[in-house]
Amino acid sequence: MNLKDIEATEALLSSPQKIVIVPHKNPDGDAIGSTMGLYHYLKNRGQDATVISPNDYPKFLKWIPGNEHIVNFEKDSNHAKQLIAEATIIFTLDFNHLGRIDQMQPYLQEAKATFIMIDHHQAPGDYADIMYSDVSMSSTCEMVYNFIEFLGHRDQINADIANCLYTGIMTDTGSFKFLSTTSRTHRVAADLIDKGANNTLIHNKVFDTNTPSRLHLLGCALKNMVIMEDYHTAFITLSQEELDSNNYKKGDTEGFVNYGLTLDGICFAVIFIENKEDGIIKISFRSEGDFSVNEFAKKHFQGGGHTNAAGGKSDMPLEETTAYFVSLLENYKEQLNA
């Protein structure tokens, strides 16, 4: 974040504002952690701030401090629309294209507010008046920590802020194992613990609150795993019928795609999840090393993200989608065997 943008942001926040903070649709730990961390910081500065989520999010994130104040656009759209229309500042966190907020998009496009983007994904859009974009960062939560520090208020990070930001850093770094995890990331995490983040509790709340149905669904996913050794690739499929028969709840498939990368010799892992309500196959891509799933998802599956973690979708049926995916692998055999 350059000095001009820091000064412009501080000037805006030096007077009372009506602020809306927005994560992407289907928010994950980094999206909820960063928006709520920023929410607590702004509230502590006396600002009128509200987080509006495009839709619901997993139960394992609903312990987050201040969770009860999040407005769900799908469930309370009239209130959310009024807040957006009245906002003087809108922060968009953990996404960089308004298409990532689905049905909220037209209301943000009509908004008269000043837009501030904080995000670490590639190829940002140009809708924001103030943009803090850095693809090298581990998480948007680490960026919110930096944002608060840029404004000279690192000493104002309290336990609520620390717990929120630690959550997103932990989840978006794969518990500090991804390549985006730097020594700075660890120093930030350490400072958050010093400021009150309960790292043991956070890990337990996020990873150790499984239901029997989720573990049964995981067993189904692992049974469906296809390993393609010639391409150092593993992929999982889950049909709508399999989701329904295992009492699927939002967030239950979180992290399933990563199991493929635990196999020796696998550097490319994918999960295909059927969503009949939306009429799509939702896809998550993960990789190790230099193979860019961001480019792969962008070119073939209407998606994108990071070099080693991306998402996409397909409008074809599940079997056709996986067949198409398999047909693509020969074109990438050299890269996957590098």
TrEMBL record:
DDH domain sequence ranges: 18-169
Domain DHHA1: 246-319
Statement: the UniProt record of this protein carries the keyword Transmembrane: no
Broad enzyme group: hydrolase
Source lineage: Bacteria, Pseudomonadati, Bacteroidota, Flavobacteriia, Flavobacteriales
Protein name: Bifunctional oligoribonuclease/PAP phosphatase NrnA
An MF annotation (GO) of this entry: 3'(2'),5'-bisphosphate nucleotidase activity
Matching InterPro entries: DDH_dom, DHH_sf, DHHA1_dom, Oligoribo/pAp-PDE_c-di-AMP_PDE
Enzyme Commission number(s) from the entry: 3.1.3.7
